[in-house]
Task: structure prediction
Amino acid sequence: MKVFRRILVAAVALTASTGATLAADWTPPGPIKLMIAFRAGGGADTQARLIAEALEAKLGWKFIPEQVTGKGGLNMAAALKDAANDGTAIGMTVTETFGYNMAAAPKAGMKPADFTGLTTTAGFQMGVVAPSSKGWTSFGDMVAAGKGGEQIRFGVMSPKLADLAYLLGKAQGVSLNIVSVRGGKAVMDGVNAGDLDVGFMAGIQAKGVAAGDLVNLASGLSEPLNQTPDAPTLADLGVAFNADGQFVFVGPAGMPEDARTALIDAIAGVVTDDTTKAGGYIKKAFGSAVVISGSDLDAMLQTSYDAAGALLKAASE
Amino acid sequence: MMGTLDYIWLGVLAVFQGPELFSIFGLPISITLLMILCGFLLGIVVGATPGLAGPVAMAISLPILISVFGYTPDALLPVMGFLIGIMKGATIGGAVPAILFNTPGTPDAYMTTLDGYPMAQKGHAKKALRVAHFASVSGDTFSDVVLVICAPFLALLVEQYLDLPEKTALLILSLSFIAAAVGGSAAKGLISTGLGLLVAFIGTGADFYPRLSMGTEALSQGITLGPAILGVLIIGAVFHELAGQWRHRDVASRPVPQIEIGSDRLSLGDIRKLMPYIGRSAIVGTMVGALPGIGSTLAATIGYTMGQRRHEKRAKLDEPAFGEGAMEGIAATEAANSSVSGANLIPVLSLGIPGNTAAVFLILAADSIGGFNPGPSVFKFTTDAVNPELVIAFGLFTAMFVANFLNWTIGGLFMRSMGVMARVPKQLLLPVVLLLTLTAIYVQETRLEVIWFTLAFGLLGYGMRLLAISPLPFVIAFILGGKLEATARQAFDATGSDPFFLLNNPIAAAFMVLSVAIIFLASRKKPESK
Result:
């Protein structure tokens, strides 16, 4: 997977350099409104603002970051859908918005095809994280505590993760009190304040784990976590689904190709460059940049939308 | 490693070494300092203008400031510094027309007219203004000191002892307290609170489908803070004032102040005489300010009454009694209403619960800009990495003391030159405020719907004023609505879906009993005793 990522990064860097002449012709016709689907101060928000800052410095474009939070990115998507598609309105959310969330909310009347995929920036390092003060060093310790009668509060920041947590508890034969909060930072705050015992965190835990205040008990992904490779994956723990996903930039459907290419090149150029603040942040929190862009991204979003039904069905059983 | 002192120092530096505007003799002047100064001067001007008050200026300048400074955390201190400046300036400015023309510039200054205007009539206008200024600044400074000491302490206490169910109950308790305390009647307070919650619940919630939106795109994004708060508070007030102007269009013009007689200086003896009154009022004002929802008007009333009692016992025969131009009366009132403002931020910063309109706008600023979420998590003294919110909090404290310094040094002088503002005719002022508010809202959210929302909330605010329902509980319930729902849902989940989570735990149950008791006691009050 790491090799795959490197190839992707290299491929994008190449396309970026070939497309440079085309992209250089495009400049935004006005300030770019950057709608951020997550609360200020969290991992997605920090990333989006750092990227905007780097682009302002590098290309002289002007960004207006704006929080359009709620409904797992659907509010942002709804606002973005009808915005101008000339590149002056883009959104930052997670791939889950276009997969599980759109599939779970048919009434919202949105599908991935209503948007122009720009690029992903980083994959989640989604861990099941507990504070080290709990004394749990492995996922087994938590299960044992639960079976011993302790009520375990499991923080999640999206309905999809709530489903995964439910299936995780079911597979391990332990009942979890699943608490939905707004954003990964809220999970971390809750865990640190003692309101929650454990929770999903998508990379924001890196610093705390490195400092020894937090422990990655399990990986929420299909593969082990970079930071704690020994922690079991959800598949190891008997759950057939995972929380694989990325942070993603999108625009409204029908964005002209030159604007799209220019935006992709600009964003990918910043996130893959460790020397920028944005690239440095991504490397620290999420291991490495993951750049899936253009039509590959469109296809990936459509696939995850189509596949969301299986998880919805499993969790409702 | 970060210690408490390091945080305080970082906060001070954030204000003094923030983004540099220009330098004088190689000494960089930070933009935050300049914004505090501008806010402060503007605050005195609006405070001195009858019909305007701090909240109006804060409401109009906030969206404009945000569009100037942007949404980066760097914008927090300059913008909030400006608002703090307005808050402090308006407090002392309000005394000017009260003393000179018997028309209080702000509602808090009503009690100031009782002794201030008689003093002015006797030819001691300047001295009365000096007393008001001295008392106001003393009370304010005292209150800020209490804030700085108490807010972190209270926040830590809350975080340590209150779990999710207790936090839910605490929010309910604050709402019920505000409903009961603001305005005359608990029933009206509850109506106002209920409407605020209803509006907060439009388009929000945990479900993917936007509730209460009646299928419309405009409502499905929910009602944003700006249109709702500015509509009800400012536009509603403008409508109400305009209607009042129309009804009283024949009333004669204002009286003219008297010429100065005798010394207008405050002697050391005067100060020694005033200090006991100022001290007591400052303590009362600070205690009242720390409770969410009880405004400075009550503090002023209590301060004045206490001062009156003391004065009756101790005053010499040749001194004027309270109500006849006693400078102790001005001091007791001004110290009490000014000391509310600092303490009012204790519940804001430590719990995220606003207690008055000034606090509402500070929360609105924090919420719009992002990067600072008032509440217990602000005061986490993390030692391994810097907690940026805590630095901002100490930056705000620093901004308050900078504003106090300005108040002590140039505030009095500037204030005494503001008598002219009382002559600004309202029929010119109100349309300007209306236009500025609508423009300011549109600047921040460039959708035409927000103008309609704002006007609709303005009508709601007007209706509430007609029915003597205070809009403050509406605004505070609207701000706390989302938080209340989220905390309640989390508490419910965390307790394993226990439907009685508010009652199964002693602290939460006590808060709930108190919430009901407050409403019950407040509604038993006879109407005459208001």
